[in-house]
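Illustration 12: DUF247 domain-containing protein.
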Amino acid sequence: MESGRPSSTNHELSHQVSLDIDRLAQSVTEELEISNPFSDTCCIYKVPERLRELNEKAYTPRLVSIGPIHHGNDKLKAMEDHKRMYLKEFIARTKVSVKGFIELIKEKETRLRNCYAETNGFSSEYFIKMILMDAAFVIMLLLKWTYTDFRGSRDSIFYPPYKSVDVRVDICLLENQLPFFILEELCGLSPIFGNSPKATLIGLTHWFFSYEWGSWAVGEYLGGVDFSEVKHLVDFLTIYHRPTEQQQYEELEVLTAPSVKELHQAGVKFVLSSSKHLLDIKFDRNKGRLEFPRLQLDDRTEIIIRNMQAFEQCHGLTHGYVGDYIFLMGLFVSASKDVEMLVENRIIENWLPSNEEVVQLFYNLNKQNSVWSGTFLFKGLIKDLNAFCERPWNKWKANLKQNYFNTPWAAVSVSGAVILLILTVIQSVCSILQVV
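Figure caption equivalent — predicted structure in token form:
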């Protein structure tokens, strides 16, 4: 009895006949012609899910989209009118035609697309328009931040309802970046940057960070910092905080160090460094002085650190300096007492609700943090700290100072402490002689 269904042989033949091999081959070829998403110039990434799930809000813009990754998000569309207003101001001030800007971006389109790790379906026309609008917005924002006379009275970023709080965070997110080179080239067409005193994009960027992010770019601009290869605003901060001196290579089996409280008990003194670079943490073995640059912490700190950390991991930098710093600070501040000591010594300026919040901050940042013992920046530092803390004499001296000399009964208690110290030394010597 026949079922009415075609035999498997006939079924296979029908597929072979209906398949247009030439058309399929052309389709595959066209897909392969898409710009290579693994370009050497790639520098702007979607944050990996393993990091994103730790704190979604730290990587997601709240008010404005910059670049293609979050473009078109309904929650961010309200700022598109603001971008048009800034573009209109930018064109009026530069006296460069829209056509001139478009021609420049068109010439760089392939390079621009290759800066993003994930391909997008934007047409050439739409992509160029988006880059122009967003670039003009970022440039004008930096100008307005530096020069108050650039601000219009109806600008809601700087006047009620004051959107600057969210905007200044949004433009520092890794997923919300434009390649720095296109900002520089658009500025190069503009006479705004030829005025006296001459403004530069690097100078404007530094002022923005130093004004808004405290210890992350504090102090005078350092002419010795090479920003010639800066990729975007997040990369600007990673370059700014490269250590001024390379640490000596040290072999360590385990990356561990005493907490601040334990260091204090061993006689280490905590000193506020004159350096403005957060990674310039140094230890003087002879004086027992551990120097830290000042670290300012507030409710936005986690966002900026996380995005720098994500860029290091995504971009595969040889040295993950930010990740190393996070790891080291996590070792130092394992309890609120550790934070209290650093606050007392003016090393941490804490604007978070409590010292415990600082401990939790570094605990959370160390989740999914990438640290490699072979390239760890602070290997020499923690080796010296461990060696210092292991010396009994250092602990004895610290114990005397902290528990005897600082009490009202110092004159009476010191003699007892000295006797105890002598007995301890005698006991140690006898133990050695017995072994011999």
